Amino acid sequence: MATRVSSPTRSRSSSAKKSSSRGSARSGGSRKKTNSRPRSGRASTSTSRENPVARALAATWSGIAHLVGGAVRRIGRRVVDPERRRDGSGLLLLLITLLVTIAFWFQLPGAFGHLIRVGISTIFGSLSYALPLFGVVMCWRTFRHPDRNGPTGRQLIGWSLLFLGVLGVVNISDGLPRPDQMDRVRAAGGVLGFISSSFFADLLTVWAAVPLLIALAGLGIVIIVGRPLLDSVARLRTARQQRIESRQEEIESREAYETPLLSDDDTPTLDMAAHPANAVEEVVPRRKRRRSRSSRNDEVFDYDSLSSEASSATAQPSRPDPAQPTGTAQPTGTSQPTGNAERTTAGLPQGFTVHEHADPAPVEADPIPAGGEQLQLSGDISYTLPPADLLVPGSVPKARTEASDAVVAKLQGVFSEFGIDAQVTGYSRGPTVTRYEVELGAGIKVEKVTALSRNIAYAVASPDVRILSPIPGKSAIGVEIPNTDKEVVSLGDVLRSPKARNDHNPLVVGLGKDVEGGYVIANVAKMPHLLVAGATGSGKSSFVNSLITSVMMRATPEDVRMMLVDPKRVELNQYEGIPHLVTPIITSAKKAAEALQWVVREMDQRYDDLAAFGFRHVKDFNKAVRAGQVKLPEGSQRVLAPYPYLLVVVDELADLMLVAPRDVEDSIVRITQLARAAGIHLVLATQRPSTDVVTGLIKANVPSRLAFATSSMTDSRVILDQPGAEKLVGQGDGLFLPMGVSKPVRVQGSWVSDKEIHAVVEHVKEQMAAHYRDDVAAPVAEKAVAEDIGDDLELVLEAAKLVVELQLGSTSMLQRKLRVGFAKAGRLMDILETRQVVGPSEGSKPRDVLVKPDDLDDVLANLQTEG
Question: Which has the closest alpha carbon to 547: 532, 568, 558?
C-alpha cells in the first residue's frame, strides 16, 4: 500500500512544536495537558493503572521500546511521528527473534532450548532456521516504517499465506510426509506445509498443487508489501514511457534547433534574419507535436507560449517583408485562434481547460411560451399570459475570473505540499460555486485527495468545500469551492432558456443553474411529488416563490389550479386572489388537514371517471373531452369538463405534523401513492427535516428531493438519504435529487424579487377573478354523538380548558384540579380523546395535547353545541 513519507524537516518541526507545547503546558499550568505518548506506550490496562507494580513495568517496557526504536531510526536519520510509532510491537518482535536465533543458530542448551526447537520446527519445518531473517525484516520495518504494516491483521494474513505456500512446496519436494512420521515432517515443511500441500495434492494433483502454492506465496508477498502487482506494473510502464518520451523530445529538439553542417553545393543556407517567417514555420509545428504528447489534454494547446518560443528562436527581431502583403506576416499554423476556450486559458498551466457554460445566455426579447397555448378559456373569457419583460434578467455569466484562477494555484500547492501526484486540469464556473477537475497520476488512490478536504478548505479560506469523487461521466475528482464573486440567477433567464422554451408542459418550473452554468428546469408532473427542506435563510422560500411564479407565467387557470398552505401566514399572502387558486390561502393547520382530505376525495372522483370511461391518465381523458370523444350515458345531466392539474404547495410541513400528525400523514401518503395519474401533485417544504416530520412513509412515497443548506449531516441524511447538504453555502445553493437519479445535482436556485412577483400577480388578477371551490371546507366526518357527555358538560368544558391551557393531558391532574375520582377523570379524558383534543393513552406518560391555546374557543364551542 502506497503511503506518503513526510520529510524529516517537517516531521522534526512538528515534533519540536509538540514538545514545546507540552513544555509550556507544564510550566504555565493553565493549559490542558494532552496525552502525546505513542500508541505503543498506551498498552497499560485498567489493572496497570490501579497496580503500581504493573504501572512501573509498563513504563519500563515503554521506555526501553522507545530507546531501541530511537536507536534504529537514527540510522539514516529516519523520523516518524510519535502518533504512528509502534515501538512496543517492534521490541516484542525483536525479543522473539533473538530467542529463536539463539535456540536454532547457537543451539540453546537445556530442556528449554530443546522445547523451543521442537515446537517451532513442528510448525515451520526446515524453514525454522530462516525465521530470524524474517524477524529482522519485520523488526526493521516496524521501527522505521510502521505505517507500511497497514491495519491490524494484514501482516498476519500475509505471512501466513507466504509460509503456507513456501512450506507446501518444500513438503511436496520431500515426498509429502504424513503426521505419523513426525521427524520427516519437521525436516520438511512442518505442520503448515503438510496442511497446504496435502489439501491441494489430495484434492487435485501434485502438478496442479505446486503452481497454486506458488501463487499463494505470491499473494502473501503482495499483502505484506501492501502494493498491488498492477500498481507495480503500471509504475514500470510509466517509467518506461517517460524514458521514451524524454529520448524522443531530445531528438526532436536537436532536429528543430541545431543547424545542419552542409555545404553550399548540397543545400542552400536559410537566412533567419531575412526570412523570419520560414524560421517560425520550421520551429512551431515540431514544438507543437512535442507538446501535444506531453500534455494531459490533447485538444487544448497553449498557443501563446508556442508563438513566444518560436519568436525567441530567431536570431534577432525581424521586420515585415515589404513585398509581402499586409496581414500575411504570420504563416499557416501560427495564427492566434479566436475561440473562447483557447483564449481563456492564457496564463494557466499547460493543458488546462476552462469549460464554457453549457447553455447560452437567453435572448431577452424571446417570449416565455404558453403552457398549452389555449388562451381562450371556457365561455367568452380571454386570458393572456404575463409578458416576459415582467421578469428582469440576472447577472451576466462569466466562464473565467481572476478569483477562480487564483484558486487553481492554491489547489496545486496543496497537492505539491503533501506529495500527491495530482493535477488540476480545468474548472467549470457556476453562479455560486466552481467545480475544479483534478486528475490523479498512476497508482494514486482517490482517498488521498478526499482526505485533504480540511487542508483544501484552509488553503482557499472557505469552510464550505465539497469533494465529488468522481465527477459523473469523467475520470476526475471534482472539488467544489464557493465563488467569492457570486452571480445572481434570475427566474426570467431560466424561463427564457432553450430548455424551458422547448418544453410546453404547464408544470415546468425554473430551478436555476448547475455548476457547469447550464439551466436546470423541472417538470413537476414527472417528479411526481417533491420534498423540499432547508434551514432558515437557505433559500427554501425563494424556491417556493419561483415555483408559483413559474406556474403563473406558463399556465392558465384552466391548465393548473393550486392549493397553497401557509401556516406561517406571511410567506404566501402575496398570492391571495390569483385565479389559479382552488381555495383561499390556508393558514390554519387544522383546516389544512381538512383540505388534504378534500384532495383525497377529489383524487377518488377523478379515478372513478378514468375507470368509467377507460382512461389511464387524466391527460388522455382531457384530450378526449376536448375532442368530444367522451359520451355520457343517456339521461345524464352532468356536463363533462377537463380536469386541470392540481398542485398542492405546503410551505411548512412541521406545523401540520404537530397539530394533526395522523390525519396529515394519512392524507399525504394516500395522495402520493395514487394521485400521479389523476394529475394531482404535492410539493412539501419544511425547515425542520427530522424523522418525526418527514416520516418513513412520507419519504417512501415522495421520490424527488430538493435539499438546501442544513444545519447538520443528520438533517441531510433525512432529506437526501446521504450527506452533502450540510456543506452548502446557503442563499439558494441546493442539491436536486429527482426521481430515478442516484447522485444529486448541485443547483443555484433562481431568484425572483417581490417587485416581480407583485407585477405578475397584478397581471393575472386583471385577466380573471378567482373562483373558489365550495366543497373544500365542507365537513369530512360526522360529529360524534353527545350521549357520552350526558350531564357532565360543565366538567368536560372545564377539563378541556385545563388540558389545553396547561398543554398537559394528565388524568391525575384532572383529579386534583376538578376534585373528582380516578374513574371520572379517566372518563373525561376519554371524551376529550374522541373530540381529538388529546391523543391516545401511552401508559403512564401524559397524553399529547392536539389543540393549541389559540383554538380553545372553537373547541369549547363545538362541545357546547354537542351538549
Answer: 532
